Amino acid sequence: MAVTRRGLLQGAAAASCMPVLPLWAGIDVGTMRIDTLSDGHLTLPADFIFGPMPQDAIAPIRVAHGLTGDTLTSPCTVTLMRRADQVVLFDAGAGSGFQPTVGALVDALAGLDIAPEDVTHVVFTHAHPDHIWGVLDDFDDPLFTDAAHLIGRVEFDYWMDPTTADTIGADRQAFAVGAQRRLEALADRLAFFEDGAEILPGVAAVASHGHTPGHMSFELRDGSNSLMVLGDAIGNGHVAFARPDLPSGSDQDPEAAIDTRQRLFDLITAEQMQIVGFHFPEGGLGRAEAHGDGFVFIPETAG
Ligand SMILES: [Zn+2]
Q: Which tens digits make up the pLDDT trace of 145-164?
């Protein structure tokens, strides 16, 4: 095929505008098809995570993962579950109003020929901006027009509490205002659940509080196959694995988050569960393996 200058220029222009759609590996959990979708990535001050940790203890981990700079790049990955006529998103990404490098979820869905109106359920792990701000379109209308939206009752009550904006701390005040605005916009399409509830057949809510007061993870099970959608309960693929016992600056209640991480690592390693983390590298899907005093993330790659 002849390559023309015009074609090259068009190709280059198209390439520069195209969202990056990495070919992550999807897996089947029994009759459930699981794919992970990139919403983009966040750029964070490194101290947002590392600040409260003993610096000498984490120095070798930072070196091993190439994280010695002042900023961190944190991938954002939404989990999609499809089964029969169900199209279920776990979290909704950040939308267009948070950081310029996130908000790619709709493009990632289009890569699988899924339009926002095809989504039947949006299930929230928690209401931080990178997880919930994507529920509204640029006109502030619900984006997933035909979907039921499900959120843990404790998490909903926390963000809707009028005192939260004053008690959460100045650096997260915008989180509170933003969450409340979106939950109010979704009011007539929200459903609530408690810890242990089977929110869909084979999908159980697992309380994993600490990152936020009502954070929820989800155990997907079909026969002997299982997968845990962790959200931010295990918040990255580096220190959260290597030293789950250390307090992270990204967690609103660091001590509760440590207890949650240790309980989850016990569960997912004992049962050899597949896992997906919202801020894990390489598509977010994989498993945890014991390593030294902690764990290591083994990604499921596209092969
Ligand atoms: Zn997050």
A: 999 999 999 999 999 999 99
